[in-house]
Amino acid sequence: MTRSNRKLFRDMAGVKLDVGCGTNKQPGYVGLDRVQTPGVDIVHDIQKFPWPVPSGSCSSILMSRVWEYVEPKHRDRLMNELWRVCRHDGQLLLASPYAGTLLANSGNHYSCPTELTFLAYTPDWPTITIGRQAYPLYLAGQVKPWKIVRNEPNFAGFIEVILEPYKSKDNRVCLPKARDSGKK
């Protein structure tokens, strides 16, 4: 991490990070983008890991209109990197054009998400059974776990997702206890 990046994070408890902010960095956020434009504080390609951001330092991570530009082969690593920099009590706020809408059909977009996309990142969802075989949606072992707080399309043609990391204060995976099914 560069000296200027250390200074950005040193005195802040819970940095707000705007990933892929471009020229539209939100007030009060530290801007991270691959191109140096006004408002960008950290110039770094988000598809290159790790980022020059300390682990567990971000209380809020905003990623608006970025997911659709991330190459699919990097998305699981991106979600793991977001998990790494997010505080144990932090949130990831993500907005992207909803798959199948006019906004999603830009020639420079990769696939856009639906409500099913982020189920791969949470252990809270049940398995899908096909025949006698059960298949978990969660990619256990491949991705760090997130809790889905919100996962809904809106009328403007976007999907809005809020995720919270399943992690302890010392940045370790901390899964929820198994739910009681009521059976004895």
CATH level-4 homologous superfamily: Vaccinia Virus protein VP39
What is the CATH architecture descriptor? Answer: 3-Layer(aba) Sandwich
Shape: globular
- Our count of domains comes out at 1
> What is the number of helical segments per DSSP (H or I, 4+ residues)?
2
Taking the alpha carbons of the first and last residues, their distance comes to 53 Å
CATH fold call: Rossmann fold
Helix and strand content put the structural class at mainly beta
- Biggest sheet descriptor: 7 strands, mixed
Mean pLDDT: 87
Number of beta strands: 9
- Please tell me how large the radius of gyration is: 17 Å
Poorly predicted regions are: 180-184
Report on this model:
The protein has 184 residues and is mainly beta. The protein has one domain (3-165): Vaccinia Virus protein VP39 (Rossmann fold). It is built from two helices and nine strands, in the order αββββαβββββ. The chain has helices at 3-10, 75-85, and strands spanning 15-19, 30-33, 42-43, 58-64, 86-97, 127-130, 133-136, 146-153, 158-165. The chain has a seven-stranded mixed beta sheet. Strand 8 and strand 9 (158-165) form a beta hairpin. The longest helix is centred in the middle third of the chain and has 11 residues, at 75-85. The chain is globular. The relative contact order is 0.14. The model is unreliable at 180-184 (pLDDT under 50).
